[in-house]
């Protein structure tokens, strides 16, 4: 039996902007964090991310210090407000329609992102996604730590994490639809059976032309 899966990147694919950067800005605006180095680190992260040179583990080790000592329950409350006020207005209507089309065909929806899982999960819940994969952060004493665990869902890590998940499912032959904006996702683009480019960056747009991947310009 062939199982179909609809897989979506999150940032700049479903949502206009990067949810990790928007989250840091939210914490800054609310004066929850007051050290400008965290905002600056996110700007530098985006430069490196777009260049394909980001060391994700090192970046997270620094950025997660922003929530040091804050209880998970409190972070969860901030996240709810963050998603309601900042993220929901930024979700592309075309993304909602596309997800609904797959759902009407009873095809599972998977959101897989290089953002930390606790952010991705909150957003994906509002989209009624079936499966959420992000970068998992270890918890310690009721707080998030600065340490990651498991396979980071970044670059080829997205493929590895997906294959790990599939290996524990009653799936023998998965047919994968994949949507993304970033050349960092090229490993998944080539792994998928059908790849769709949404607001692709320069490198991904070139790859799309070479591989005849459909390209879409989604907007608010």
From TrEMBL:
<keyword id="KW-0479">Metal-binding</keyword>
<keyword id="KW-0460">Magnesium</keyword>
<dbReference type="InterPro" id="IPR036412">
    <property type="entry name" value="HAD-like_sf"/>
</dbReference>
<dbReference type="InterPro" id="IPR006385">
    <property type="entry name" value="HAD_hydro_SerB1"/>
</dbReference>
<dbReference type="InterPro" id="IPR023214">
    <property type="entry name" value="HAD_sf"/>
</dbReference>
<dbReference type="Pfam" id="PF12710">
    <property type="entry name" value="HAD"/>
</dbReference>
<dbReference type="GO" id="GO:0016787">
    <property type="term" value="F:hydrolase activity"/>
</dbReference>
<keyword id="KW-0378">Hydrolase</keyword>
<dbReference type="GO" id="GO:0046872">
    <property type="term" value="F:metal ion binding"/>
</dbReference>
<protein>
    <submittedName>
        <fullName>Phosphoserine phosphatase</fullName>
        <ecNumber>3.1.3.-</ecNumber>
        <ecNumber>3.1.3.3</ecNumber>
        <ecNumber>3.1.3.41</ecNumber>
    </submittedName>
</protein>
<dbReference type="InterPro" id="IPR050582">
    <property type="entry name" value="HAD-like_SerB"/>
</dbReference>
């Amino acid at each position: 039996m062939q199982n179909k899966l609809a897989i979506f990147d999150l940032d700049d694919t479903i949502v206009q902007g990067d949810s990790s950067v928007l989250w840091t800005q939210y914490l800054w605006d609310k004066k929850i964090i007051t050290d400008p180095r965290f905002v600056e680190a996110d700007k530098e992260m985006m430069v490196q991310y777009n260049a394909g040179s980001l060391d994700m583990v090192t970046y997270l080790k620094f950025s997660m210090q922003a929530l040091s000592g804050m209880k998970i329950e409190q972070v969860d409350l901030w996240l709810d407000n963050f998603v309601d006020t900042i993220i929901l207005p930024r979700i592309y209507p075309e993304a909602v329609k596309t997800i609904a089309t797959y759902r009407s065909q009873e095809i599972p929806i998977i959101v897989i992102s290089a953002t930390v899982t606790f952010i991705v999960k909150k957003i994906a819940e509002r989209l009624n996604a079936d499966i959420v994969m992000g970068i998992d952060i270890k918890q310690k004493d009721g707080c998030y730590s600065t340490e990651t665990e498991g396979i980071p869902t970044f670059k080829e890590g997205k493929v590895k994490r997906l294959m790990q998940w599939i290996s524990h499912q009653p799936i023998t032959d998965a047919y994968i639809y994949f949507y993304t904006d970033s050349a960092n996702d090229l490993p998944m683009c080539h792994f998928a059976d059908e790849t769709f480019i949404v607001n692709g960056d320069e490198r991904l747009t070139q790859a799309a032309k070479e591989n005849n991947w459909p390209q879409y310009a989604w907007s608010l």
